Structure of Phosphomevalonate kinase:
Amino acid sequence: MSSSFDKSKYSHIKKIILLSGKRKCGKDYLGEKLAEKLHAVLLHLSEPLKLEYARLNQINGEQLLTSSSYKENYRKDMIKWGEDKRHEDSSIFCRLAIEQKDEICLTNPIWIVCDIRRYTDIEFFQKYFSNQLLLVRIEASTDTRNKRGWIFTSDIDDSESECQLIFCRLAIEQKDEICLTNPIWIVCDIRRYTDIEFFQKYFSNQLLLVRIEASIDTRKKRGWIFTSDIDDSESECQLDENVDWSFIFSNNDTDNFNEQINNLIKIINS
């Protein structure tokens, strides 16, 4: 499938509303009500994902599109498959969601996208429709979501698909009083490209990217033991390549720690 997108077909667009929120917060309900009142096109990025996943695995795609318990049997594996596809092509499901309803999209000036979950989803629409974009966050308490049938599920509700849009922002908000007065922030645990992208988006001129490296022997002496599905996971490995680091700090026992930290401080203060 081509990764190109022909924006010129959609010059009639007046507004694209992107809805974001956690499971059982009411994204679909709000999207349906807005679409009804605005006579808008309702798009789901998960729809092409689910239909293609169903086709490849020979299961019922229409059932995956419902809120039934059927899709819960496949959710974890479906999320993993979707992440793999996005790593190959970050905007694939944004384009497919539009293409699958292209006949309606070509004539309707208002689109509502019900399930924005990642920075790359937002970036796709910002790239092509920045002047028409409206970003809406839907929030509901844990109690409310529980009443609607939500049950916390590990590897789903704490996964990138549910949480990517909030952790950088929450880290700042939790120390907001200090952040409002201190001119230097140090973020100790950047693990993904999207973490970097968040700070590049808002603080590109102030950003310094520091990579800390230590040999396997050094890490073992500090108690590290390789654990499958953790040390070979995305959270540990994604930034191992394709990052233009401002400073690489070599932190083995034989390295000159004081010399390196002094050099780093000079760069910070420059």
Observations:
- DSSP finds 15 helices and six strands in the chain.
- The two ends are 47 Å apart (CA to CA).
